[in-house]
Amino acid sequence: MLAAHAIADAASPERLAEAQLAAYNARDLDAFAACFADDVEVYDFPGVLSLKGRDAFRARYVERFKSEGLHAIAVHRAVIGSRVIDHERVWLEGEAKSAPIDLVVIYTVRDGFIARVDFIREG
Predict the structure, then answer these.
(1) Which residues touch 7 (CB under 8 Å, ≥6 apart)?
(2) Looking at the domain 2-121, which fold is it?
């Protein structure tokens, strides 16, 4: 995990977004969580706080990372200063077993870590 912190500290917002996506696809919870600040805040559109803190963040993904088919791609990415805006497509059980979920995710980077995540989902 120390290596993941070193990568996060040196990463641009875009590289940090890519690193967390790669860790998500590898289902590497330690590397994934290491991309996020200790006090990370996660919001559901329109600004509803759904969780706060890296421990709560890790807990949310423990079960999800057990799915061997879990896979996500960035369909489109825009970088504006410290923010990365991704249109992501996610398969929770794999492309053959589940329909994709499309969402927009806004990652806000502060001090080399993702400090805020905003999810915009249909419905």
Answers:
(1) 19, 34
(2) Nuclear Transport Factor 2; Chain: A, (3.10.450)
